[in-house]
Amino acid sequence: MSRILIVALVFAAACGGGASPAATTKDSAATVTKRDTLTRRQKDSVLAASKVPGAAAVRAAMHAADSTSAHINALDTVGQ
Predict the structure, then answer these.
(1) Structure confidence at residue 46 (pLDDT)
(2) What is the rounded distance in angstroms from the CA atom of residue 28 to the CA atom of residue 21?
(3) Helix H segments across 16-54?
(4) Do residues 55 and 47 lie in contact, with contact meaning Cβ atoms separated by under 8 Å?
(5) What pLDDT does 77 receive?
(6) How confident is the model at residue 32 (pLDDT cuts 50, 70, 90)?
(7) What is the per-residue pLDDT across 56-73, written as a single tens digit (0 to 9) for each?
């Protein structure tokens, strides 16, 4: 029972650090822009290189997407 309580407290603490309700949308957008400098591809690459569970799936998905893009580009080049 105490493990469940500890997990619940850790989860609540992790969720509680958001912006105050008084913050405006403009301020929030500016904060996200300053903080979020990596592209989606870069974030996925970092995740794929890590040892967290599911990283291999991200790596495989990125490989599949790259292969598909290369195939599409090759088909587009043949048509020209």
Answers:
(1) 93
(2) 11
(3) 25-35, 40-49
(4) yes
(5) 87
(6) low
(7) 999 999 999 999 999 999
Answer for the pair 48, 62: CB distance below 8 angstroms, yes or no: yes
CA dihedral 44, 49, 52, 56 (to 10 degrees): 80
pTM: 0.50
Q: Which of 76, 40, 77, 75 is nearest to 61 (CA)?
A: 40
CA dihedral 32, 8, 46, 40 (to 10 degrees): -40
Place of tokens 């040892």: 51
**Tokens matching residue 27:** 């301020």
The pair phi, psi for residue 7, each rounded to 5°, is -60, -40
> Cα(56)–Cα(40) distance, rounded to whole angstroms?
17
Higher-pLDDT residue of 38, 34:
38
Dist. CA 9–CA 20, nearest whole Å: 20
